[in-house]
Amino acid sequence: QVQLVDSGGGLVQTGGSLTLSCTVSGLTFSLYAMAWFRKAPGMKRECVARIVGAGRTTYNADSVMCRFTISRDNAKNTVYLQINSLKPEDTAVYYCAADRANWRASATAVDEYEYWGQGTQVTVSS
Questions:
Q1: pLDDT (tens digit, 9 = 90+) per residue, 78-118?
Q2: Residues 80, 107, 16, 5, Cα dihedral to 10°
Q3: Which of 18, 85, 119, 126 could make an SS bond with 93 (beta carbons 3.0 to 4.6 A apart)?
């Protein structure tokens, strides 16, 4: 049984930082590309960053460039999202997702990912 467990969200002030984690079990983690998505109220779920199995970041959304950093530790089956300089518009539920098509440099659509975490809430106060 594949499980993705998101954690690390919380309430932070504008300008603060958070590190989200997603621990994966039930699949060969290093063979999957991983991504972080977020969904704000009234908005579609959007991909903010993607990293392939070898650890190369292949996508960062323009809206989060230079503030969000995705990384992974294949020995720990965990993918991270470091978020700096948080803004109120970053308030959303953040989800990790796994894509077996590890060779794709870019995959930002929801239906391109087979497995999903349960989500972790990030709230940024102004």
A1: 999 999 999 999 999 999 999 998 888 789 999 999 999 99
A2: -40
A3: 119
61 by Cβ neighbours in 10 Å (0-12 / 13-18 / 19+) ranks as middle
Tokens in use for 16? 């603060």
CA angle 44, 19, 85 (to 5 degrees): 75
**How many Å apart are CA 27 and CA 42, to the nearest integer?**
33
Question: Is the distance from CB of 50 to CB of 57 less than 8 angstroms?
Answer: yes
Instruction: Give the pLDDT score at 104.
Output: 83
Question: Distance between CA atoms of 101 and 117, rounded to whole angstroms?
Answer: 18
Query: What pLDDT digit, counting tens, does each position of 6-41 carry?
Result: 999 999 999 999 999 999 999 999 999 999 999 999
- Name 10's Cβ contacts closer than 8 Å, sequence gap at least 6: 18, 121, 122, 123
Helix, strand, or coil (residue 111): helix
Separation of alpha carbons 31 and 42, rounded Å = 34
